[in-house]
Amino acid sequence: MAKVLDRPTERPSKEDLRDELVRRLPEMCEQWPDRRVELINGRIVVRELPTDSHNNIVFWVLTQLLGTVTEHGWKIWNDIKIHLGPQTERYRPDLTVVPRNPRMWDKNEVYGDVTLLVVEVVSPSSVNDDHVVKPQNCALAGVPLYLVIDAFDEQVRLLSSPSLKGYQQENIVKFGGSLKLPEPWNLTIDTDELPEG
After folding, report:
1. pTM of structure
2. In this predicted model, what pLDDT tens digit does every residue of 24-62 receive, in sequence order?
3. Eight-class DSSP state of 186
4. What does the DSSP 8-state code read for residue 112?
5. Most CB contacts within 10 A, which of 26, 34, 126, 164?
6. 51-193 has which CATH code?
7. CA triplet 146, 152, 155: central angle to 5 degrees?
C-alpha cells in the first residue's frame, strides 16, 4: 500500500512547499531504500515493493523491447528518476528506455525529453498516478512515448505526441491484441503472452 507523508499543518507558500519537498525527497529515499519513493502532484509517495505478477509483467515488457533496443544501441533502465523540468515532480518509472548517452540532470536523473519510452505497470495504489497525473507531466516534459500496462483493466495504453495540453494521441489495446510503437521503434508488441496481473 502506498503511503503519503503528512503535509505541514501551516499554510506555507507554494515555493516554500516545493523547496521543502525537494529537500526532503533524498532523505525519504535514504529512509526507505527498499521502496519506490517519488514526488507526485505535490506529495512524497512511498510505494510498496512490486509483487511477483508486477515483476512478471515488467519481464514480459523487457522481452518485447530487448531486440529493438539492442539493435539501436539504446539502454533499458529500471530505476532512474525522470527530470521533468522546473516542476517538482520526480518519477521513477518501472522501465525507461534511453539512447546510448542520454543527457542527464544528475547521475540519478535523466531528462524526460531524451527518453525513448517510459513504461509504467499499474499497481493497486498507482492507478490514478499512472493513468492521469504522470502522463500529464511527462507530456509537458516532452517524454515522447508513455506506455501503461494495466492488468486490472486488462489493457495496454500507449500515449504519444506530447504537447503542453498533454498527449495528443492515445492507443488502447485489450490483452491479446497487438500494439505498434511508432518511429523510431517500428516495433509491434504482441500482448498474447502478457502474464495476468
Report:
1. 0.75
2. 777 777 776 666 676 766 767 666 655 677 888 989 999
3. -
4. G
5. 126
6. 3.90.1570.10
7. 45
